[in-house]
TrEMBL record:
This is NECAP PHear domain-containing protein. Coiled coil: none annotated. Belongs to the NECAP family. It comes from the Eukaryota.
Length: 74
């Protein structure tokens, strides 16, 4: 098994981001941000984008504890 010796680089940090639950569309007119309950985000925290080798990672973390919430791979 090959060992990955590449280092992880920090590409971007956003100290406060919000995640919203997007409701299903009621018609074919598309999505409207006004329907997303912008005053009640489903989650708030910090966003970090890192890269290691040829992979980029989007990390959502609790802004107080630093505990990771979700990973999205590109």
């Amino acid at each position: 098994m090959a060992e990955d010796n590449s280092y992880e680089s920090m590409l971007c940090v956003k100290p406060e981001v919000h995640v919203y639950r997007i409701p299903p569309r009621a018609s074919n007119r598309g999505y409207r941000a006004a329907d997303w309950k912008l005053d009640e985000p489903a989650w708030s925290g910090r966003l970090k984008i890192t890269a290691k080798g040829k992979m980029a990672y989007i990390k959502l973390e609790d802004k107080n504890t630093g505990r990771q919430k979700k990973d999205c791979f590109n």
